[in-house]
Amino acid sequence: MTSETSTEVVVEGRAPTPPGGAPAAAPSAGALLVVLVGTFITVLDFFIANVAVPAIKADLGASAAQAQMFVVGYGVAFTAGLITGGRLGDLFGRRRMFTLGMVLFMLASAACSLAPTATVLVVARIAQGAAAALMVPQVLGIIGTVYTGAARDRAFNAYGLVIGLAGVFGQFIGGALITVDIAGLSWRTIFLINVPLCLVSLAFVGRTIPESRGEGGTRLDLVGALLVTASLGIIVFALLEGQESGWPLWVWESLAGAAVLLAVTVWHLRRRAAADRGPLIEPALFKGRVFSVGLTATVVYFLAMGSFFFVLALYLQLGRGLSPLESGSVFLALGAGYFGASVVSSRKAASVTARRVAVGPLTLAIGYAAVALTADRLDTTGHVLWLLPALLVAGLGMGLTTGPLTNLVLGAAVPEHAASASGLLNTAQEGGAAVGVAIAGAVFFPTLADAGGSAGAYPHAFAVTLVPLIVLGLLASALVLAAPGRTARR
């Protein structure tokens, strides 16, 4: 895959760059920094709320269902809207949609921080997730059109680094903010902090990011948008609620209905593509083996990655009695491994092969196995510091995978559909993480209940839950090997 692209790049006050040419404006580090701030805060808010749920529940008198919706509502809205958000960037401008998404995200974050009741907070979190779905898919589209060659490879790896750091450090940042309790705001600071970050970023958007659009189609595929959003929303919501509700009949009926909707969606997209009417998702994206297999590997990898944060937090706080800040501090070992491996991956971005990428999820599986064995052996008496070496290995696996796998998938995408491809990739990442939580919960909670549900049962339940995550890591590695090719695009 070469760096030549037929994506139209429009810079205000200048003529569009011809296909295959250099960007109309020389890219700067500022453009990357601005879009990565948007990525960081949206991913952070997916994880940070987990730490704050007990404090929110106590302060607002929330029910158990409302407490779950603080997390699920954001995740469902985020995941379900990503593909539509990507297509809106293709049609109306990625910088414009990124800016609009960040403004709405800032306003929704302010609403979350000021929420007087649990119901208002749930609505604000759903709005926050929808705004994130508009903003995030533009990031990879902007990177793919602003940067070329080795600079693009490094930018994709920086994107992967930021996603991992936001997920890994989300627990620590949330715990620290709640513990410090700035101005007596307690949990409200985890949302309020987004406001100044957004304001600073918005001040630099127009100065650093050129406008760009994708070719093909002049109108939004509204039917496709509704079908895709409904299908993904139903799937994610049913899986997350199912494990909490004990998998009642309505969950299986919802999943069956979503499968029918997906079939209708595929038929609609193919029909619209055949008529050259600009489908929401271009079927041509899946003709490439590297893209389709790499996208599948991304789903599998994030099933294993996102769910690990969830069960590790439960084990540390409820099983080992650590405070949110102490629990978040243990996550720093993951962050150290992730950061170190990401730096190495970034330096070798232009020469990474699929075989080298496959080492990442394999290392992740090895790290998970070491964590499981250590936790089971420590039981409730051994010091949690013994977990740090195994967590470091798991972090290395994450760092060796996230950025390079992103590069592999987008490097194989049809360039004129950059934002749509990034929307699909973001959906694979966020949807995989959300569904992974449901999978982990379906193993963790029954195992915990069978062992009596006491604090002493947590180490064993945690270790057992890691078994399917280990399998997922090995599967992701095998899938990457099935998509041979270089990630570098010269």
What does this structure look like?
- With 490 residues, the protein is mainly α.
- Helix content is 76%, strand content 1%.
- The chain has a two-stranded antiparallel ribbon with strand order 1-2.
- Helix 1 packs antiparallel against helix 4 and helix 3 runs antiparallel to helix 4.
- The protein is globular, with a radius of gyration of 21 Å.
- The termini are close together.
- It is a multi-pass membrane protein.
- InterPro entries: MFS, MFS_dom, MFS_trans_sf.
Briefly, what is this?
The protein is mainly α. It contains 15 helices and two strands. Strands 1-2 form a two-stranded antiparallel sheet.
- Approximately what portion of the residues adopt beta-strand conformation? under 5%
Helix proportion? over 70%
Tally of helical segments: 15
- Strand tally is 2
Structural class: mainly alpha
Keywords: Antibiotic resistance, Membrane, Transmembrane, Transmembrane helix
InterPro entries: MFS, MFS_dom, MFS_trans_sf
Transmembrane segments: 31-53, 65-85, 97-124, 130-149, 156-178, 190-210, 222-240, 246-269, 290-316, 328-345, 357-375, 387-410, 431-449, 461-483
Region (Disordered): 1-22
Question: Which helices and strands appear, and what pairs or packs with what?
Answer:
Blueprint: E1 8-9, H1 29-60, H2 64-92, H3 94-114, H4 118-146, H5 149-180, H6 189-192, H7 194-208, E2 212-213, H8 222-245, H9 249-274, H10 289-319, H11 324-347, H12 354-378, H13 388-411, H14 418-450, H15 458-481
Helix pairs in contact: 1-2, 1-4, 1-5, 1-7, 2-3, 2-4, 2-8, 2-14, 3-4, 3-7, 4-5, 4-14, 5-11, 5-13, 8-9, 8-14, 10-13, 10-14, 10-15, 11-13, 12-13, 12-15, 14-15
